[in-house]
Amino acid sequence: MKTIILYLLLAGAPILGIFGVLLLGANLQAPAAIHGAWTLTLEIPVQETCQSLSEWDGLPQLAIAQSGPHITIQLNDSAHALLIGTLVENNLTASGAPDYQLTATLDRSAEPDLLRGVLNAPQCFSPLPFTARLQASPRNAAGH
Amino acid sequence: MLDLPLLLMQIAVILAAARLVGWLFRLMRQPQVMGEMIAGILLGPSLLGHVAPRISAAIFPTESLTHLNALSQVGLALFMFLVGLELEPKMLKSQGMLAVFTSHVSIVFPFFLGSSLALLLYPLLSTDSVTFLQFALFLGAAMSITAFPVLARILTERKLLNTRLGAVTIACAAVDDVTGWIILAVVVLIIRSGDSGLSIWLRLAAIAAYIAVMLFGVRRLLQRLETAFEERRALTHDAMALILVLVLASSLITEHLGIHALFGAFLMGVIMPKHSPFVHALNDKLNDAAVVLLLPLFFAFNGLRTSIGLVSGAASWLYTLLIVLIAILGKFGGSTLAARASGMPWREAASLGILMNTRGLMELVLLNIGLDIGAISPTLFTMLVLMALATTFMTSPFLDWIYFSRLVPREYPAPPDGEGETPLTIVE
């Protein structure tokens, strides 16, 4: 009898606890997934506003790594253009050396997801409005 | 495209680092495998990539890692086969209620604490690409796994296998490993169920059919191989090749069924005949290739994915500390309480708890699967890797402190070298 009571207490109670936790957490919300590779389209030609932007040679891309609301953005694999920021609801803000700043809004109604925003780059006279399109769904991507 | 000279250089560097750091850790009375895990981390962005980024980029350019990963995955499949091969169901039966009770509690208690931790970490370290259910189940599984192979090695080295502590621990670890992998298979299945057109019920039916074929078809074939082995007293190359083909085929099937390739290799090992000379012959043939050559590649690949720099800021380190504490409380606390409640003296029960708390490379295998399927972020992956290292590292000194310095001289005079020990030698 003592063994059964002990078993119920030490093994049974945690099992009930697991079900309780799963019920309790069912309504928890995690930040929107934006990790992955995004293709950038500038709304004005970069040559008109910027002196030179070597990071954008070729097809401009944003590589976004994410852990919860914490975001790391890399421009075209350039180690010199690394932005760190946060995602609050659908609003993304990030900045990094030297003088990069990015603000964008996530549009999840589009297929695939879209980021619309503005990028301030050190070699540019004015902010660059952009649209970025997700290349692969985060759900199918390996890792975050 | 394969750059063969680069791949050969990578393998040479990894093996040299693994043996060197492993040797240093052996000097500190730590298992070799602990040093190899650390060597992998040192070769990654946490050290080499941080202090010498050009050298790191020259030795491990991103585009070359595909080949390294492929080799390490083959090694891991062979290793998981060896782990399954060493699992002996009789271990549990012979230890009775104590082992059954302790093993059950040592799974559900850390699982409960791990899933509770998910309530805090899900909004902070995850995204909505995984549901809370998937995240909580994965974190629960990560907390409840035990490193059966590392434990087997520690118990053999310390001549504990034939003590009550050793016998109960190895039985509990075997149950934990099987249960942990079943839980993980369920989590992987749930997460991957959205990736293909197959419904989850169809997949479950296919998995049930696969297990039935393995248990009732392939197992009989393997028993014939064992009979042939007993007649010849040797494992022929043909038999060896057939076993390897079956391991790879089983891995391929489970990969296609949506539960990782490693489960197929593991199950293949579990259903192998457990006659000791046959198991030893197989182990002898495969061990060096899998453990000495290929497993360090997995540790290196794991290290290249582990960036301690991702854990930045006081809050991140606080979460890491919390993860380590919850992991210890769940596994060490749960196992100790259960063993004590079953009648083991406190000191012996605590020793069992500290042994069960060893997560070692099985945790790394699980975490890499989690990162691959997107269940966890790279940051949480790094935090959990640190937890795996901390819980494995603490085993030897705490075991010395709790058990060897007080209990052993009094209760268990050591037998002469090798006498009465069943060698379990999956890892060093």
Structure description:
The complex is a heterodimer of chains A (144) and B (428). Chain A contains 2 helices and 8 strands; from the N terminus they run αβαβββββββ. Chain A is an alpha+beta fold and 144 residues long. Residues 139-143 of chain A have low confidence and may be disordered. The mean pLDDT of chain B is 87. Chain B is globular, with a radius of gyration of 21 Å. With 428 residues, chain B is an all-alpha fold. Chain B has helices spanning 4-27, 32-43, 48-51, 53-59, 65-86, 89-125, 132-144, 148-157, 164-192, 200-232, 237-256, 261-270, 276-305, 314-341, 346-356, 360-372, 378-393, 395-404, 407-411. Chains A and B meet through helix 1 and strand 2 of A and helix 6, helix 7, helix 14 and helix 17 of B.
Q: In short, what is this structure?
A:
The complex is a heterodimer of chains A (144) and B (428). Chain A is α+β, with helices and mostly antiparallel strands and 144 residues long.
Subunit arrangement of the protein = heterodimer
Into which percentage range does the β-strand content of chain A fall? Answer: 35-45%
Spans where pLDDT lies below 50 across 5 or more residues of chain B: none
Computed structural class of chain B: mainly alpha
First and last CA, distance of chain A: 49 Å
By DSSP (H or I, 4+ residues per run), the number of helices of chain B equals 19
Rg of chain A, nearest Å: 22 Å
| Helix percent band of chain A | 10-25%
Total helix count of chain A?
Answer: 2
Which of globular, elongated, flat, extended, rod-shaped describes the shape of chain A?
elongated
SS strand fraction of chain B = under 5%
The outline of chain B comes out as globular
Q: State the end-to-end distance of chain B.
A: 34 Å
Biggest sheet layout of chain B:
none
Rg result of chain B:
21 Å
Which parts of chain A are unreliable, with pLDDT below 50 for 5 consecutive residues or more?
139-143
